[in-house]
């Protein structure tokens, strides 16, 4: 850019507040077509920004987002932990004591029942994965509904 022209920063500052315009800068703007066009463009941008509606915010949204980002501590259920531990120990003891009989019983089952016992854990895992995805989608929809209220209404461009 030519050193005779005003810089972009000077033109932006002049467009923001016309009170601080120096006489030499105003003379340059009035005589230089390139600087005048840029100055008028910056004034147009500034006036357009002033006309934009102010965005309204939902005061509950920040707390909602914080609760999602940092979920509150869930209580530890000692009774469930103790019951699961005792159940695991009992299953292990039963497998050691009755393991051979269980394998012999399982081998004697028809093929269709063996497939059923193999597919049961897989189907339960699939159901849990689908339910997790549904809960995730519901949370995301709730967040999107809350954030839609943050979007300014852009009726001014129509």
Helix-strand pattern: HHHHHH
The portion of residues assigned to helices is over 70%
Biggest pleated sheet: none
Q: In whole angstroms, how far apart are the ends?
A: 37 Å
Helix run count: 6
Question: Main traits of this protein?
Answer:
6 helices, single chain, 158 residues, mainly alpha
Secondary structure layout:
Layout: H1 8-16, H2 23-31, H3 33-51, H4 61-69, H5 78-108, H6 111-148
What does this structure look like?
By secondary structure, the protein is mostly helical. Helices cover 73% and strands 0% of the residues. The protein contains six helices and no strands. Helix 1 crosses helix 3 and helix 2 packs across helix 3. The longest helix has 38 residues, at 111-148. It is rod-shaped and about 105 Å long.
Q: In a few lines, what is going on in this structure?
A:
With 158 residues, this protein is an all-alpha fold.
């Amino acid at each position: 850019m030519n050193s005779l022209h005003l810089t972009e920063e000077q033109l932006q500052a002049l467009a923001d507040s016309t009170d601080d315009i120096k006489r030499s800068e105003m003379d340059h703007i009035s005589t230089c077509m390139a600087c005048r066009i840029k100055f008028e463009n910056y004034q147009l941008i500034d006036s357009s920004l002033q006309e934009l509606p102010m965005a309204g915010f939902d005061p509950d949204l920040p707390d909602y987002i914080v609760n999602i980002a940092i979920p509150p501590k869930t209580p530890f259920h000692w009774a469930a932990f103790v019951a699961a531990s005792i159940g695991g120990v009992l299953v292990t003891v039963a497998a050691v004591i009755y393991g051979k009989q269980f394998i012999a019983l399982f081998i004697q089952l028809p093929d269709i029942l063996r497939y059923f016992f193999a597919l049961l854990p897989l189907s339960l895992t699939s159901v849990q994965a689908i339910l997790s995805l549904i809960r995730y989608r519901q949370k995301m929809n709730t967040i999107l509904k809350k954030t839609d209220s943050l979007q300014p209404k852009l009726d001014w461009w129509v």
